[in-house]
Amino acid sequence: xxxxxxxxxxxxxxxxxxxxxxxxxxxxxxxxxxxxxxxxxxxxxxxxxxxxxxxxxxxxxxxxxxxxxxxxxxxxxxxxxxxxxxxxxxxxxxxxxxxxxxxxxxxxxxxxxxxxxxxxxxxxxxxxxxxxxxxxxxxxxxxxxxxxxxxxxxxxxxxxxxxxxxxxxxxxxxxxxxxxxxxxxxxxxxxxxxxxxxxxxxxxxxxxxxxxxxxxxxxxxxxxxxxxxxxxxxxxxxxxxxxxxxxxxxxxxxxxxxxxxxxxxxxxxxxxxxxxxxxxxxxxxxxxxxxxxxxxxxxxxxxxxxxxxxxxxxxxxxxxxxxxxxxxxxxxxxxxxxxxxxxxxxxxxxxxxxxxxxxxx
Length: 361
Fold this sequence. Notes:
Elements: E1 19-29, E2 37-44, E3 50-60, H1 62-69, E4 80-81, E5 85-93, E6 105-108, H2 118-121, E7 147-151, E8 155-157, H3 164-184, E9 192-196, H4 200-212, E10 215-220, H5 223-231, E11 236-239, H6 245-252, E12 258-263, H7 268-276, E13 278-286, E14 304-307, H8 313-324, E15 332-337, H9 341-349, E16 356-360
Parallel strand pairs: 9-10, 9-12, 10-11, 12-13, 13-14, 15-16
Antiparallel strand pairs: 1-2, 1-4, 3-5, 3-7, 3-16, 5-6, 6-8
């Protein structure tokens, strides 16, 4: 059945040392691009500084699609458990872990950091130079399972009344645009920002921008995504299939261009549009990636071009506070069971999803 099995007859997943003898269900990649296999696997062991989280909800991200299809720059060893947008309850606590109790609802911060390097000491833990694999990435089992083991410092308590489907979006679908908007671009009240590629991350970014008081232009090739952007507060929507984006943005901004562009796609075409839509002194932040992109340095002489990587633990704490106050809305439009994880990945890979997808486990 293409599963490497140990003496107990159970599939071995990732690093065998992470696993004990109690059984749990997980959705496994056994062959790149093939349907996931839901099987019994050993439940993760809990290290001294770790906690075991019973997964209640796990978001499905396009990076999961890339891992599933073998198109990710880092291919996982098979079988592999996907899933990095995790929310659930603490089921077991390592002997040295503090600040949590069994039954606490938590959202899981992605990055397993050293806490010693210059970046970590400066609070930029998303740039840790000794970072270990995050859940669901190559080298570490993720949240497409009943349980996942994570560092206790990464299990951040959320209010018991917060829906797990929303809590699961905070570590990535909200944290990634939040960091880009608040820390990297430092968007201010009444500035104009353009979002390119209106998927789940951009929809989270749209909400953050409106809380700041920015004016938002949403750009997409898909009308249904633009309609959803309007519901989340976009001031202007532009269909890039029917409208010259740069010309329209210049018209809307009296010829100046926008203060900020957040490109969640980052192809040669979208990056060129973003650069030409930005006013002098403005910023283009790219959060997607694709093939290598040729760049004419002359086109960015008067703007800043930079990238952004997920967010920090402090960013996630900020988002938990905002969600607790009812200031963030879930952009989940499709919910699947663990048994239907392949269907969720397939829908996302075909571009059929408007908003965000979550597995309820």
